[in-house]
Amino acid sequence: MNWTKKQLSILAIVAITSFMGTFLISSVNIALPAIEKTFGLNAVKLSWVITAFLLATAMFLLPIGRWSDLTGIRRIFKAGVIIFTFSSLICGFSPSGFWLISFRYVQGIGAAFTSTTGPAILVSAFLPQYRGRVLGISVSAVYLGLAFGPFAGGFLTQYLGWRSIFFVASAFGLVTTIIALLFLGKDQQNADTQKKIDLKGTAFYMTGLIMLVYGSSYIPGLQGWLMMGMGSLALVIFWQVENRSTSPVLETKLFTRNRLFAFSNLAALINYSATFAIIFLLSLYLQKIQGMSPREAGIILVAQPAVMAVFSPIAGRLSDRIQPRYLATLGMTICTIGLVVFSLLTNLTPIWIIVVVLFWVGLGFAFFSSPNMNTIMSSVNKHQLGLASGSAATMRVIGQITSMTVATLFFAGIIGNQAIETVPDNLFLMAMKYSFISFSLLSAIGIYFSYNRGKINRDVQSNNT
To answer: For the chain, how far is it from start to end, CA to CA, in angstroms?
Structure first.
């Protein structure tokens, strides 16, 4: 393994950026009760502190992924780091809940730029036999951010206030911006740079996501169901427009003619839909039901991503030798079992059981994520790497939005507009239980798609599209 200095620099830059994004997500989760007290937000509005970031990321991932294939993935990556850094800084100065949610939306746009181009930069810089390994390292950095975030977020929130989290994130961003500008280099000239993107479908895509996510905040009212129905219709129209376009943002044929690509993306969507809200729910559970401080809750929640960080490179390396679907399916099965156990939590559940299950789910997620990403990036041609990376990132973020939407639905239906701290414990536990039951069922469905995706052709690292 003789990697060049340039390859190592690229790996470091992408890994640092991956760490930075998830560090902020996980640390803000811990700070939610403190943010609630500062701005007087109810449960549904509080969830938008997380959802606004995810919504913006999901809205821009696909068009940015396609755009980066035409204009240059490194250029888009650098722009994303700058946007993310600036928005992190202004989040720390938010005067109200409305402005915090708005600035988090801008932050999500920056994250879309880096999330969709980072894996593509890695894959283009390394030989196919090293893809699983370098993607495993990148995924490990993601989980290190998730692992460090709850602890650091709890510490910062308790001693310096929740705003300090965003100031720390902006400092990370500034360092990463400098490194990227100095060492990332420029893109090679692309013969397709004059090719245009058909954005008609994108308008329906963005509208559909907004209507679905915003509508969930008004469930169980009629207005909420109507908005979610209109959002679903807009996404169907988006698919039809893209299917007929000569220059689509999303190449639908990849999903209809490439089973390996389609099932791997669907498995990712289901996995993130079933697992993302775990930290959100347990952060509130540990602080409200178990009476922990933000710092103590953060220490407990480190368990899951810490295991992910340790085992993701191992799983990624194994996926270069073993068919990834076997590893990913094992991981999905482990996650499903853990979610079932989480649905049984009560106010008397010992902390050690929660820690053990967090370890267990972290192991499952590690065995799923790296092999699944290796499969997605190995199932397309070289000129489609940005699109594949953007598609995978979109599945992840839409899954995260779905996970938060499911939790929001049960919170809105059972708790209503009350603040979390004023809700009776039994109602909170009921909403959490139904959320985890739903996630368990989703994850069980994902096992089928993970196993039946097909095999990677090691000799030809692409399929017909």
So the answer is: 32
